[in-house]
Amino acid sequence: MKRRHRSRVRRDLRQEILAFIARWYRQERTSPTVREIQRGLKISSPSVVDYHLRRLEEEGLIARMGRRSRGIRLRRWPDGMAPEEDLIPIPFLGPIAAGEPIPNPNTEPLAWIRIPRTWLVDDNGLFALRIHGDSMIDALVGNGDVIIVKPTPEVEDGEMAVVWLTDHHETTLKRVYREKDRVRLQPAHPAMSPLDVPAEVVQIHGKVIQVLRNLNGISLPMGPY
User: Fold this and answer.
1) Least packed by Cβ within 10 Å: which of 55, 61, 161, 168?
2) DSSP 88-105
3) Are 157 and 185 in contact (CB under 8 A)?
4) Pick the CATH number of 2-74 from 3.10.180.10, 3.60.15.10, 3.30.420.40, 1.10.10.10
5) Cβ-based burial of 193 (10 A; exposed 0-12, middle 13-18, buried ≥19)
6) Which of 31, 42, 47, 135 is catalytic?
7) pTM for the complete prediction?
8) Can you tell me the distance from the alpha carbon of 179 to that of 197, in angstroms, rounded to the nearest whole number?
């Protein structure tokens, strides 16, 4: 009984911390430090705050940006609503294949989606694509999901990237691995084989930094990817 009580108290405190971070951000337009959370909620020590922040991060409710003192980011607002002024527009360019490559997506937006700025470390030049296919399902990227992509011409081996195949004028989403003069485009599906292509036909257009999950037709936030 005592153990269940302590567990409930800890969950309640974590909810208080989430609410405090949200209130602070709405008032100050930045995130609080660990010590400001400690003082604001009269918590016994910064280490207790840090413990609960780690648990919240494991639960996918916040992200912490390295060693920045104000590096706490809410992935989901306690009331489900970010401040209207904090929603930023991201251009939606159309579909991308998570399976067999398909023609290159549009370069002009088909629409705009608005997401909270606090979900993102960097919002410069980002664009959104909708997943078509299930080749990345084991990476928790499924058919109908929306990915947020950061433009970059290079990615590290194993990162999930938007790849343009110049020989076929097609684009696909895969994990990228360089192997001498070849590139292996690896799906995340046990029944699908990788694409092995010459390095000169591969152009990286960007890497996935976030996934908006599609559940019953509704896109839900999943934190930085």
Assistant:
1) 168
2) EEEEEEEEEESSS-EEPP
3) no
4) 1.10.10.10
5) exposed
6) 135
7) 0.59
8) 10
What amino acid is encoded at 40 in this protein?
G
Cα–Cα nearest to 75, from 43, 109, 119, 40: 119
**Two structure tokens written together for 65:** 């940006």
pLDDT tens-digit readout, 190-213: 889 999 999 999 999 999 988 877
Q: What confidence tens digit (pLDDT) does each residue in 177-192 have?
A: 999 899 999 999 988 9
Q: Does domain 84-224 have CATH number 2.60.40.1230?
A: no
Beta strands 87-97 and 111-116, pairing class: antiparallel
Q: Quick check: is 174 catalytic?
A: yes
Q: Report residue 126: phi and psi, to 5°.
A: -65, 155
**In the chain, what are the domain boundaries?**
2-74, 84-224
Catalytic residue from among 31, 150, 174, 207: 174
CA 119 – CA 212 distance, rounded (Å): 11
